[in-house]
């Protein structure tokens, strides 16, 4: 796998992770986030849905959003993230709308990140679970919010007129679960923090036999590291890096 023509910035001051469901960021990116926060990057999570369609037991649906928000905050804390925001859209019913683009643009203008991490809008046919329709919708909505909405002062003018939010240009976007990854992050040294984050999502993972989650995710990261030619025994998360200028 060749390296990207332009490597991502070595360090950014602020990063925003925009994902569909509580736990999405942790399965695909928590190790990467842990490396960023360890290097001093301020990371904000924006979770688009309330996660009410998740879970594997008879927990009442009306209780699930509260539980999953608490789980996501605990997971975020495990990798050094304290700013966790929720848009509260219904789980499993996301559509590409101007309202969603505006809501993501608002947070981009509030946080003013140099880097945004989100899910790929492209379907992975060899790993269909990564391409949940909500993931793809959030990825496309976030890319549209990055360009052109958040940087265009004339897009959603109410964000400036009513909320005082100036336009902001994001320099790079990292797409997770992409069929064309070109950048791998070695997360071997922070993998316990990633697992602490994943295991915080009790409603989503507690049904699995002991050790199965770690075994599965470790194997997945080991394959990713090998595919990107990291040294034997290393673990990695991988992304497609998109430069916006």
UniProtKB/TrEMBL annotation:
Molecular function per GO: hydrolase activity, acting on carbon-nitrogen (but not peptide) bonds, in linear amides
Domain of life, source organism: Bacteria
Record InterPro entries: GlcNAc_PI_deacetylase-related (IPR003737), LmbE-like_dom_sf (IPR024078)
Keywords: Zinc
Keyword Zinc: yes
A GO BP entry: glycoside metabolic process
Protein name: N-acetylglucosaminyl deacetylase, LmbE family
Organism per entry: Klenkia taihuensis
């Amino acid at each position: 796998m060749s390296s990207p023509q332009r490597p991502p910035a070595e360090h950014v001051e602020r990063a925003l992770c925009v994902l569909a469901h509580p736990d999405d960021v942790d399965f695909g990116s928590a190790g990467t986030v842990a490396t960023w926060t360890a290097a001093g990057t301020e990371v904000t999570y924006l979770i688009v849905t309330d996660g009410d369609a998740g879970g594997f037991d008879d927990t009442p649906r009306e209780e699930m959003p509260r539980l999953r928000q608490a789980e996501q905050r605990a997971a975020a804390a495990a990798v050094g993230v304290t700013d966790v925001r929720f848009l509260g859209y219904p789980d499993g019913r996301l559509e590409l709308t101007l309202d969603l683009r505006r809501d993501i643009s608002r947070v981009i203008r509030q946080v003013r990140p140099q880097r945004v991490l989100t899910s790929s809008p492209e379907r992975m046919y060899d790993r269909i679970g990564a391409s949940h329709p909500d993931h793809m919708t959030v990825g496309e909505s976030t890319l549209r919010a990055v360009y052109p909405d958040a940087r265009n002062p004339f897009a959603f003018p109410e964000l400036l007129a009513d909320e005082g939010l100036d336009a902001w240009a994001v320099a790079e976007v990292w797409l997770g679960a992409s069929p064309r990854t070109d950048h791998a992050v070695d997360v071997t040294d922070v993998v316990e923090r990633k697992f602490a984050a994943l295991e915080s999502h009790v409603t989503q993972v507690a049904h699995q036999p002991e050790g199965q989650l770690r075994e599965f995710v470790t194997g997945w990261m080991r394959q990713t590291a090998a595919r990107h030619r990291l040294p034997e025994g290393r673990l990695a998360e991988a992304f497609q890096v998109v430069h916006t200028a």
